[in-house]
């Protein structure tokens, strides 16, 4: 099998070159005009020159379909994404206090958090603050940041006074102005225990009918394990809803890639059934990995002049990437003890549903 990014040849400087056309951008026109061989580019220059996504035109795309930025427009709502969204929306709407959403890296937590923010954006009765990186060193700093983002008109240098100011603000907004105040925190697994304690404290502010602050935490799986500790029992007790984003199934993976293709303005979907199988196999259903591999494969197809992305190309991309995120599910060694001997068997864990 020919590796994807092995050069078609080397130029006079012994640099790699590819038989491709370079997209002209304002920053690269100088290079192009000074190059006497428009179809022979060195790889190092190519990466710099093609920042404008070379394959868009070839595949009739308006936008990049497989970017890793968490743009909610590209979100494919799988059953678990839908459930998580509904549970969080319900927690907020019913003013129940705390909603948790867990998921492995790359399963779409940040994208879903943005989707949630977008859905509540237009509701005039809701004010929200979205904290993307909550690793503040102290609760004081987190509180100050929340207060600033909610545009609380008062402040104080004293932490306890500040807490009181925020409590009065929440009460006033909820009871006198009928507002729902929402705090969305992404990467909640980075919250230190004193910050979690602050959140617990803020969720104590309530009337008989409602919590005054709705908190939605998006966190990696390790956070769930941390919450087992007895010191967080009071926080966990306040969780009205918890949900988990699963890896996508093979059918959902294909649907997600197709969905993103259509959102990006694509017409004929270039991934063959074999390619989709391989993408699932190597990504274990993790959308982030699928998106990265799909993007690499499109570039590969473009560079190699292939009209479609087939299974072989995905294998080449995976081999070329050579990173652990594309390794298939590890074979687990399961040791079973029988009456007189140890039997060792191997099985592959699959995520197929
Ligand atoms: N359900 C999905 N539909 C479409 N793209 C997704 C989905 N889930 C994740 N992605 C994509 O995978 C990448 C990583 O998603 P992200 O939300 O940052 O994951 P996480 O926050 O869980 O690590 C992004 O490009 C995102 O658009
Ligand atoms: Mg994230």
Task: Characterise the protein shown here.
The structure is a single chain. The chain has helices at 29-34, 43-49, 79-93, 109-121, 139-149, 159-177, 193-202, 221-226, 233-236, 250-263, 273-283, 287-304, 311-321; strands spanning 9-10, 16-18, 41-42, 98-103, 126-131, 180-185, 213-219, 239-245, 331-337, 342-348. It is of the alpha/beta class and 353 residues long. The chain is elongated. Mean pLDDT is 83; it is low at 1-45 and 337-353.
Walk me through the topology.
Elements: E1 9-10, E2 16-18, H1 29-34, E3 41-42, H2 43-49, H3 79-93, E4 98-103, H4 109-121, E5 126-131, H5 139-149, H6 159-177, E6 180-185, H7 193-202, E7 213-219, H8 221-226, H9 233-236, E8 239-245, H10 250-263, H11 273-283, H12 287-304, H13 311-321, E9 331-337, E10 342-348
Parallel strand pairs: 4-7, 4-8, 5-6, 6-7
Antiparallel strand pairs: 1-2, 2-3, 9-10
Helix pairs in contact: 5-6, 11-12, 11-13, 12-13
Summary keywords:
single chain; 353 residues; alpha/beta; Helicase, Ruva Protein, domain 3; Rossmann fold; 3 domains; five-stranded parallel beta sheet; three-stranded antiparallel beta sheet; 15% strand; disordered C terminus; binds adenosine-5'-diphosphate; binds magnesium ion
CATH topology label of the largest domain: Rossmann fold
Q: Looking at the chains present, what oligomeric state does this protein adopt?
A: single chain
Main sheet attributes: strand count, strand direction, barrel closure:
5 strands, parallel
Report the order of strands and helices. Answer: EEHEHHEHEHHEHEHHEHHHHEE
Write down the overall mean pLDDT: 83
**What is the CATH top level name of the largest domain?**
Alpha Beta
Proportion of residues in β-strands: 15-25%
How many structural domains can be distinguished in the coordinates?
Answer: 3
First and last CA, distance: 32 Å
Total count of helical runs of at least 4 residues: 13
Going by CATH, the homologous superfamily of the largest domain would be P-loop containing nucleotide triphosphate hydrolases
**Shape call:** elongated
Can you list the strand order of the major beta sheet? Answer: 5-6-7-4-8
Q: How many β-strand stretches?
A: 10
- The CATH architecture of the largest domain can be named as 3-Layer(aba) Sandwich
Helix/strand-derived category reads alpha/beta
């Amino acid at each position: 099998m020919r590796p994807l990014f092995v050069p078609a040849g080397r130029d006079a400087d012994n640099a790699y070159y590819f038989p491709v056309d370079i997209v002209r951008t304002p920053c690269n026109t100088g290079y192009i005009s000074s190059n006497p061989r428009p179809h022979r580019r060195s790889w190092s220059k190519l990466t710099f020159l093609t920042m404008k996504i070379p394959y868009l035109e070839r595949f009739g795309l308006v936008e990049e379909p497989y970017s890793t930025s968490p743009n909610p427009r590209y979100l494919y709502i799988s059953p678990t994404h839908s459930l998580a969204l509904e549970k969080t929306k319900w927690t907020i709407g019913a003013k129940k206090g705390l909603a948790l959403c867990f998921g492995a890296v790359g399963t779409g937590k940040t994208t879903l958090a943005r989707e949630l923010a977008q859905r509540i954006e237009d509701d005039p009765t809701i004010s929200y603050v979205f904290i993307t990186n909550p690793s503040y060193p102290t609760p004081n700093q987190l509180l100050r940041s929340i207060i600033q983002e909610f545009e609380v008109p008062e402040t104080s240098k004293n932490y306890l006074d500040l807490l009181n100011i925020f409590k009065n603000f929440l009460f006033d907004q909820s009871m006198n102005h009928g507002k729902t105040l929402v705090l969305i925190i992404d990467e909640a697994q980075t919250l230190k225990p004193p910050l979690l304690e602050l959140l617990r404290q803020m969720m104590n502010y309530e009337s008989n009918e409602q919590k005054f602050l709705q908190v939605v935490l998006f966190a990696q799986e390790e956070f769930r394990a941390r919450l087992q500790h007895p010191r967080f029992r009071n926080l966990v007790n306040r969780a009205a809803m918890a949900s988990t984003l699963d890896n996508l199934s093979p059918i959902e993976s294909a649907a997600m890639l197709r969905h993103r293709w259509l959102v990006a303005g694509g017409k004929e979907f270039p991934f063959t059934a074999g390619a989709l199988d391989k993408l699932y196999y190597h990504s274990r259903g993790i959308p982030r990995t699928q998106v990265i591999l799909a993007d690499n494969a499109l570039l590969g197809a473009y560079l190699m002049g292939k009209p479609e992305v087939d299974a072989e190309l995905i294998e080449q991309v995976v081999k070329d990437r050579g990173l652990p995120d594309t390794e298939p599910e590890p074979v687990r060694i399961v040791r079973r003890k029988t009456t007189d001997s140890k039997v060792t068997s191997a099985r592959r864990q699959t995520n197929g549903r």
